[in-house]
Design brief:
single chain, about 450 residues, alpha/beta, GMP Synthetase, Chain A, domain 3, twelve-stranded mixed beta sheet, four-stranded mixed beta sheet, 20 strands, about 25% strand, binds zinc ion
C-alpha cells in the first residue's frame, strides 16, 4: 500500500512514524479503503446501503427539495433499504437541480460535518449548478486523491508539474508558480519533492519552454491541451525524457487522444473521472487500466432512456448519489455523462468497473431523426493534410439539427474551394449532410474553468 513511510511528528522517532492528527485521519481512511476495495460486490453494497439510509433520512427531514420529491411520489424510506428502493427515487437532472437552487440545501446540517463552502459548476454551455462542500467532503476528497497516488505508486520525491486552469494572473507564463511540496494531498503526510504549476492560458511554445526548464517526472493537464502540446513538441523535435506519467483531468479522454498523448510523451497515461459536484467518481485501475467506481463515496448508476439499469456493455446516462455530502445531497443526479459498465476487473477489486466514458451528453450530436450519437470528428492532422494549411485549434458547434459551425484557428483562412473539401469530409464523419459554416479565429477560448470542448451541441435531444 504505502511505498514510503509517513512523516513522524515526534522528535527522534522515525520508524514506525507517529503522524499528526490530520495525517492520522487520512491514513485511517486509506487503511479502510485498502480493505474495502477488495470486498465482494455484495458486501460493498451492504455498507453503501447503510450509509445511504442515513443520507436519505437526513435528506427527507432537512432538505426541502427531497421532502417535496418524496411526498409527491409517496415514497417512504424502508427500514431494510435496498437498491430497488433507490431505483424508485425519481432522477434529478441538471435543470431540476438548477431550478431547485436553495431548496437543495440542508436546513439542519450536523455540526460535525464542518465548515461549509459554496461553489458553482463552470456551466460552459448552460446555467451553472450551485452546491456546497463541507469539511467532511473535503477530507474525503483528499483521501480519494491520495488513493489515486497510492494505486499508481507515484514517487512523491519526484517533480510534479500541472498545466491547468488558474484565475488570471496566477501561475502566469513564462515562469508559472513554484511550490516546495506536492501540496495538501501529499505533503501533510509524506515527505515530497517540489511541484510547479502553469496557467493553461500559456501558449504552446511557452508551455514547452516551461516543461523543458522544469523537467517533470509527473505532468497533469487537460487532454485537449496535452494533445496540442504533443503535436507541437513533435513538430519541434522536442522530448521530455524524464517524464514518467501524464495524468489527464477535466475532460473526456478519448482512445485516440490517449494514444496520441502516450506516444507523444512516451509516458504512461492515467485518467481521472471526476465531476465538480461530487469529486472523484472513478479512478483507473493500476493493473488493468479500467475505471473503478469510488463506491465508498458514491453510488454510480448507468441507466437507459427509460431509466432502466443498463447491463455491462450497454451505454447509458450516469446517475450519481453522493454518500457524504449532507449540505447539498445529490440523489440520483444525472451528471450529464454517458458511460458503459464493464465486467468485473481481473485485478480482483470488487469496486464496479466502467469500461468506457463516452463523454458529456451535451457533447453528443443530434441528428434530424432525433437520434443522438457521439460525433466522430476525424483524424488529427486531416484538415492540414487536405488543405496544406496548418490547423492549430478546432471546435465544432452544432447550432440546429441542420447546421454545424466549424471554428478553426489556422495559419490562414481557407478559400471557398478548400472549405468545400472540408465540408465533404465533415459530412462523411458526422454521418449527415449538415450545412457547414466556417469561422476563422486567432484563438478559441476555453470555458471559465479551462476546459476545452471539441464538440458542443446547442440542440436538445
Ligand atoms: Zn481493477
Amino acid at each position: 500500500m504505502l511505498n514510503q513511510l509517513p512523516l513522524s511528528r515526534i522528535s527522534g522517532s522515525t520508524f514506525p512514524a507517529i503522524p499528526d492528527a490530520h495525517a492520522s485521519t487520512q491514513l485511517a481512511l486509506q487503511y479502510q479503503l485498502e480493505s474495502s476495495q477488495w470486498w465482494p460486490a455484495e458486501v460493498l453494497i451492504q455498507h453503501q446501503l447503510k450509509q445511504l439510509h442515513s443520507l436519505l433520512q437526513h435528506a427527507v427531514s432537512t432538505v426541502p427539495y427531497y421532502q417535496q420529491l418524496f411526498k409527491l411520489h409517496k415514497l417512504s424510506i424502508p427500514n431494510a433499504l435496498t437498491l430497488e428502493f433507490l431505483q424508485q427515487i425519481p432522477i434529478s437532472n441538471r435543470s431540476a437541480v438548477q431550478s431547485a437552487d436553495n431548496q437543495l440545501a440542508s436546513i439542519d446540517l450536523p455540526a460535525d460535518h464542518g465548515a461549509v463552502e459554496f461553489s458553482t459548476t463552470s456551466g460552459s454551455t448552460g446555467r451553472p449548478v450551485k452546491f456546497a462542500r463541507t469539511a467532511l467532503t473535503q477530507t474525503l476528497w483528499l483521501a480519494f486523491a491520495l488513493r489515486d497516488h497510492l494505486w499508481h505508486a507515484r514517487d512523491f520525491t519526484g517533480k510534479l508539474c500541472a498545466i491547468r486552469w488558474f484565475p488570471a494572473g496566477v501561475a502566469s507564463p513564462p515562469a508559472g508558480a513554484h511550490h516546495p511540496t506536492w501540496g495538501n494531498i501529499v505533503a501533510p503526510i509524506f515527505a515530497s519533492g517540489q511541484s510547479a504549476s502553469l496557467n493553461v492560458v500559456a501558449t504552446l511554445p511557452q508551455q514547452i519552454a516551461w516543461l523543458m526548464q522544469e523537467k517533470p517526472d509527473y505532468l497533469v493537464s487537460f487532454p485537449s491541451n496535452l494533445v496540442a502540446l504533443c503535436h507541437y513538441a513533435t513538430t519541434q523535435n522536442i522530448s521530455l525524457p524524464k517524464l514518467l506519467e501524464v495524468r489527464t483531468i477535466g475532460e473526456t479522454l478519448t482512445d485516440q487522444n490517449r494514444s496520441i498523448i502516450q506516444q507523444g510523451f512516451n509516458a504512461k497515461v492515467v485518467d481521472i473521472y471526476s465531476c465538480e459536484e461530487a469529486g472523484y467518481l472513478a479512478l483507473q485501475c493500476p493493473e488493468s487500466g479500467h475505471y473503478h467506481v469510488q463506491s465508498e463515496n458514491v453510488i454510480l448508476e448507468i441507466v437507459d432512456k427509460n431509466g432502466q439499469a443498463c447491463p455491462p456493455g450497454k451505454a447509458g446516462q450516469v446517475l450519481i448519489t453522493t454518500l457524504h455530502n449532507y449540505a447539498t445531497p445529490l440523489i440520483r443526479y444525472e451528471v450529464g455523462d454517458i458511460a458503459t459498465f464493464g465486467e468485473p476487473c481481473t485485478c480482483g477489486r470488487g469496486l464496479p468497473v466502467i469500461h468506457k466514458i463516452h463523454g458529456r451528453k451535451r457533447n453528443r450530436l443530434i441528428l434530424p431523426s432525433g437520434e443522438n450519437i457521439f460525433p466522430y470528428l476525424g483524424e488529427h492532422g486531416e484538415i492540414t493534410r487536405a488543405t496544406g494549411v496548418k490547423l492549430h485549434q478546432f471546435q465544432c458547434i452544432q447550432h440546429t439539427v441542420q447546421e454545424v459551425e466549424l471554428k478553426l484557428v489556422m495559419d490562414r483562412d481557407l478559400t471557398s474551394e478548400e472549405q468545400a473539401k472540408i465540408t465533404i469530409l465533415m459530412q462523411q464523419h458526422l454521418g449527415y449532410p449538415f450545412q457547414i459554416t466556417y469561422s476563422f479565429l486567432s484563438d478559441i477560448a476555453r470555458s471559465s474553468t479551462g476546459k476545452f470542448e471539441e464538440f458542443i451541441s446547442h440542440v436538445s435531444a
